[in-house]
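Sharing a chain and its predicted structure for anyone who wants a worked example. Both blocks are below, sequence first, tokens second.
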Amino acid sequence: MMDAYTHLDVTASNPISDFKARMASAGIDRALIVETWKGDNYSYLQSLVAATSLQFRAVPCFRPAVGLPPIDLLEHDIVVGVRAKTADLNRLGDLAAFLESSGMWLVPHAEQGIGFLAAELINLAGRYPQLRVYLPHCAWPRRDKQDDKDWAKSITSLSRLPNLVVGISAIAHFSRATFPHNDIQPFVTRLIQAFGPDSVVVGSDYPMLEKTLYSDYVNLAQEWIRQEDPKWSPRFESLIFG
């Protein structure tokens, strides 16, 4: 099994070793590490690339103010996509074509809400029909703990995109309840119904959760998915790990 969305705990003395221990405790053998917006885990992504790790894949951020991630980084097998904010999707330029032609993933962020993001992604898909999109964090069902009124219609629209997968991650961030966050399960059920279980994956968003409950969080997300499909086997893991 894979943790399809983590950042690493940079406060740990050795963030990669710390995370490997968390993974072992949860029966997770592979992970996708996503750069934070402030870039505090970027050096660790670089070290994984340099080591040609077989256990990890990485996604750096796109920041128009500083230009594209280095091309030698993007062309490395361990780097499988680029993270971008909604406001920057119309600035991808040639990077969108590169992601499409190389089979890499766009990992968007919904800082303006899922409605704005959905509109931008649908527009991008019209120009780059083979572009792969990985939509994390339960597709942002809430903003400031309040249900996003655009969520249901946005999910319906996005479910028509053939190259999109959705991640069940950041559960605690959206919940108004304590663990096991039962108020989030209906959103997960709706995502599975809309996209199908093969297009749904589990990510932790570690360390943005109760660190001692890492295993509980990944097991909870897996349990919710398997309630809908006991034979669930996400295609995303096989796509990014070859």
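Comments welcome. The longest strand covers residues 2-6.
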